[in-house]
Specification:
Number of strands: 27
Shape: globular
Strand order of the largest sheet: 1-2-3-4-6-5
Helix content: 10-25%
CATH topology of the domain at 411-604: Trefoil (Acidic Fibroblast Growth Factor, subunit A)
Biased composition (Gly residues): 426-437
Domain Protein kinase: 30-285
Largest sheet: 6 strands, antiparallel
Distance between the termini: 39 Å
Binding site for ATP: 58
CATH architecture of the domain at 411-604: Trefoil
Protein name: Serine/threonine protein kinase
Transmembrane segments: 354-374
Structural class: alpha+beta
Length: 605
């Protein structure tokens, strides 16, 4: 029985997670039965719209609901959503911009994002599917541009493969091409690898040519697993977009005609690019117009889409759901007496100041959450659902780190096959944390001191209290244990890489060691933890130990925020349900989740 409801709702196949105690059970007229994901703007819930129809209900963060500028922009975005042409994006079902916090609901579209489709297929799409993808996605953009609107945020996670073909989603930064609703400062740049030069340089107003550029980058990803200017979120990628040439050699090896079309779309001059309608014509002429796109998806992708569609048809009658009683939020954790007084007042003032400084940075990312937050194909529910297709073992869809434009650096050879799910990947591929005899703690005596003398209770003495969050983390930094403020490390041995926990920035006698981790967001609120050497933190399904392996996005490599505490959060593995922990001998392990254990609480630094 789904938490908070008397009706049994099986979330298997949806990718949604069960509701937590703090989650609402109803938003507006929509009963809420699961969590699809969360982001910098709010939380996305699986709601029930009508018998046989689910909805994606997005609720804005309460803090943002107090910002008048954000609310004006939010209202403008809702106006644009209502203007979307039929068949482009998800239908806006309802909204309440005056609610606190405000929310809106769109139709739940059963399908796979392009990123998930490559994972399900085990690599790039076949050529027939590529031409169909280009044709249908360009057709959606042409409809949008005909209404003088620009998407502004096209990327693999915003292109949805369905039983009917292709649907474009996430119009959170879409707006009129004439710029009559200007973006807030800095909102011009979305995902750098899929950003047009004029958008990267902040030129306004943008035209549909920016979307055509992004579409070409998306097609490169679909064809070879990488965009033409390299992956990443830093200024180096934007510099290549602005000044470098796209690397289309690998695409040309797949299909020379496709490479020619993409080259025209990637011209630095927006005026020199074809329109979306012209791209549709080229795709039909070169790739054929007989078969529908859905018929050309690989079998593994079609199977996953069918699983989503089967789930979507099971939505209960919302009127038949027994409304639960309102649940009060759990009381705040007890405050130590030492936390009271003038020092506590100063800390509260610092936190308020930090919030005011942080809000503009959050707002520039775009005013609205993704319109459709599609369930992740690697979620715990999906991996256990009958009929789901396991990804092929032909290799990961996500390439290794890029060193320069068009050059994909191979993943370290010591990683070998993925360690995340050996039963699905055709062997254990065990490295790192699963390597017998791997040493324990790293050598070194590096220590840290608390800024301003702020300490914490029950954790590492002399270290600042981190800010707890239940949102999906992003960005790059150190991951520290609340138990002793030591860092999660990627250590290189002769036998491979292993996750360890050691004094931050300490050295190892066994080989190179790095302490930086990138949080790579996945659909459904999950994330990957990618080390500086390019490996993904995973759980070995045979031993339940933490390990490092070649990134493939499988559920064994996916993590989510388990419990947010006053001192950090637990990181729960999607596949095993166990939480990342620091052992007493300096190893990174997984244990049954218990946020009362300081060794399971982590914070970013």
């Amino acid at each position: 029985m789904q938490a908070g409801w008397d009706t049994d709702i099986d979330l298997g196949g949806s990718g949604a997670l069960p509701l937590g105690e703090r989650d609402p059970r109803r938003i507006g007229r929509f009963p809420v039965v699961g969590v699809l994901g969360s982001g910098g703007m709010g939380r996305v819930y699986l709601g029930v719209s009508a018998p046989g129809r689910y909805a994606a209900v997005k609720q804005v963060l309460p803090a943002l609901a107090e910002d008048d500028g954000f609310l004006r922009h939010f209202g403008g975005e809702l106006d644009n959503l209502a203007r979307l042409p039929a068949g482009v994006g998800a239908t806006l079902l309802d909204s309440d911009r005056d609610a606190r916090p405000p929310w809106f609901a769109t139709a739940y579209i059963p399908g796979l994002t392009l990123a998930d489709a490559l994972r399900a297929h085990g690599g790039p799409l076949p050529i027939g599917a590529l031409w169909a993808l280009l044709r249908d996605a360009a057709a959606g953009l042409a409809e949008l541009h005909a209404r003088d609107m620009v998407h502004r945020g096209l990327k693999p996670s915003n292109v949805l493969l369905t039983e009917d073909g292709v649907t474009l989603v996430d119009f959170g930064v879409a707006r009129e091409a004439d710029g009559s609703r200007p973006a807030r400062a800095g909102a011009a740049v979305g995902a750098p690898a899929y950003t047009a030069p004029e958008q990267a340089s902040g030129k306004e107003p943008l035209t549909g040519a920016a979307d055509v550029f992004a579409l070409a980058a998306v097609l490169s990803y679909a064809a070879i697993g990488a965009p033409p200017f390299g992956e990443g979120a830093g200024s180096d990628v934007l510099d290549r977009v602005l000044h470098g040439e796209p690397e289309l050699g690998p695409v040309r090896a797949v299909d020379a005609g496709l490479a020619d079309v993409l080259a025209g779309c990637l011209d630095k001059d927006p005026e020199a690019r074809p329109t979306a309608a012209e791209v549709v014509g080229e795709a039909r002429r070169r790739g054929g117009k007989g078969a529908g796109a859905a018929e050309l998806w690989p079998a593994s992708v079609r199977d996953r889409i069918a699983l989503r569609a089967a789930f979507a048809s099971t939505a209960p009658d919302p009127d038949a759901l027994t409304a639960p009683a309102d649940r009060p939020a759990p009381p705040p954790p007890p405050q130590d007496a030492s936390a009271a007084g003038p020092d506590a007042d100063r800390r509260r003032r610092r936190r308020r100041k930090a919030l005011l400084l942080a809000l503009p940075a959050v707002l520039v990312a775009g005013a609205v959450l993704a319109l459709v937050l599609v369930p992740d194909s690697g979620s715990a529910q999906d991996s256990a659902s009958p009929g789901s297709s396991a990804p092929a073992a032909s290799g990961p869809a996500t390439p290794g780190p890029r060193t320069s434009a068009g050059t994909v650096a191979p993943a370290p050879s010591s990683y070998g096959p993925s360690v995340a799910d050996p039963a699905r990947r055709g062997g254990s591929g065990l490295t790192g944390g699963g390597t017998p005899g791997a040493p324990g703690p790293l050598a070194g005596t590096a220590t840290a001191t608390a800024p301003d003398g702020i300490g914490v209770t029950g954790g590492a003495p002399g270290f600042p209290t981190p800010t707890a969050t239940s949102q999906t983390p992003t960005g790059t930094g150190q991951v520290r244990s609340y138990a002793d403020a030591k860092c999660l490390a990627d250590m290189s041995f002769l036998t491979g890489h292993a996750p360890q926990v050691a004094a931050c920035d300490s050295k190892s006698p066994y080989g190179p060691v790095t302490y930086g981790w990138t949080f790579s967001a996945e659909p459904g609120g999950a994330f990957l933890l990618v080390s500086q050497s390019g490996g993904c933190l995973a759980v070995n399904s045979l031993t339940s130990t933490a390990a490092l392996g070649k990134c493939d996005g499988s559920s064994g490599q996916q993590w989510r925020i388990g419990t947010a505490t006053a001192h950090g959060s637990t990181y729960q593995n999607v596949s095993s349900g166990r939480c990342l922990a620091a052992s007493s001998v300096g190893k990174a392990v997984t244990d049954p989740c218990d946020s009362a254990q300081a060794g399971q609480v982590w914070y970013r630094h």
